[in-house]
Specification:
Elements (H helix, E strand, L loop, with lengths): L1 E2 L2 H6 L5 H5 L5 E6 L6 E10 L4 E9 L8 H12 L4 E6 L4 H9 L3 E2 L15 E5 L5
Parallel strand pairs: 4-5
Antiparallel strand pairs: 1-2, 2-3, 3-4, 5-7, 6-7
Length: 134
Amino acid sequence: MRKATDADRAALQTDDSGAIADRSEVEALAFDRRDGGDLVGLAYCVRDEQRELVRIESVVIQSDLRGWGFGSEAVELVEGQYPNSSFVARVDPKTGLNLYFWLRLGYRPGGPPSPVSSPSGDGMITMIRRHDQK
């Protein structure tokens, strides 16, 4: 895992990744294939060092590599970058596959969508994995 370059971001531009990447607090991490060095995906994260918390904003995988476990590996690599941190991801509950993805990785709902768990009122569920649960 390495810091993403502008070329990495351009190669994996999605509808929301531009808006995420443009925020100054967001760190973009890229990961490549071990066998040839080709870009596999990006993970966009926001780190709160005081609270030892990392919010995973988005994980983007090359479309032809989806379904092969690279998304799970990306999350595990991000977690390895910050070994003493807890992690948070926000998930749309209407997309069952996304919810299942985070559950499989050991993340648990912080509660049903509410003004506290979803302050923007967007109905997203906050998924949490505490560092002592790894």
